[in-house]
Amino acid sequence: MVMDRIFSGIQPTGTPHLGNYLGAIQNWVNLQEKYNSVLYSIMDLHSLTMPKESAVLRQNILDTTAAILACGIDPRKCFLFRQSLMKCTGQNNDGNVGLLTYPVLQAADILLYKSTHVPVGEDQVLHLELAQDIAQHFNKKYGEFFPVPKAILSTTKKIKSLRDPAVKMSKSDPQKLATVNIVDSPEEIVLKFRKAVTDFTSEVTYDPSSRPGVSNLVSIHAAVTGLSIEEVLHQAIGLDTARYKMVVAESVIQKFTPIRNEIKKLQEDKTYLIKVLEAGAEKAKELATPIYQEIRRLVGF
Ligand code: ADP
Ligand code: NA
What we know:
Elements: E1 6-10, H1 18-34, E2 38-42, H2 54-70, E3 79-82, H3 102-112, E4 117-120, H4 125-142, E5 150-153, H5 186-194, H6 212-225, H7 229-235, H8 241-267, H9 270-299
Parallel strand pairs: 1-2, 2-3, 4-5
Helix pairs in contact: 2-8, 3-4, 5-8, 6-7, 6-8
The protein binds adenosine-5'-diphosphate and sodium ion.
């Protein structure tokens, strides 16, 4: 019997945005409750997409750690660690790692812990297929060894850019006011929702294909309150879209104010953040070492 093991990674890009929270982090918080063996890796070896300056990277790692802890990731329920602290694993830390691409590194990480499930957004299913292919190839050649990791697809609708609902909300969107960061102040959140693109109909309805802007607001409102689309539409009866934007902004402020305060508190305690990551790495290493030794034995080096 193979024990279920969840693996997922996050890139240390600092504090997450609303899409990251609703599409990924919230799901991670639920998974750590449901499964006994859960690993979350801060993927700081994907050097091609990482800042070149080590001081910036270090700060981003700590900010990312503070943010996901504040969102409810609990180091007693999962192993939270920095990928680059896993030195035993044979992954090269001396700079050659840049030769490997993101999906290859991700596949190696997934397999190193014999992960059985990987939470992913739709946009990452292809990445996971590489890990599945490698597992199957390995098993064919050396005998059943790796579980073929299954995707756990996020059920959250993609959150769209507030300035252009044709594209997803993203940290790399250059448009001002398009992306809501979970540490934005209430004033910034209000401004971004006030400027959100809607259309010329004032009523609030949900129809993503013909009314993508207002439908995105409805999706966000439902996701942050935990209500259904029908329930939030019911609450919006009688409101025009301008008023409704402020209702959604308020729900986002309500949701993220405690998280934002917690992030600030955690950011002041670097020693604690480092301790969490080191303890997580220690435990992840304990899991990986025998697996890695067995891989070496099987392939004969
Ligand atoms: P970004 O697009 O901002 O660079 P990433 O690609 O680093 O975000 O994604 C990190 C995680 O957040 C992934 O699991 C991804 O599916 C999820 N995610 C990113 N943007 C969104 C969004 N707009 N809506 C829902 N989930 C998202
Ligand atoms: Na758990």
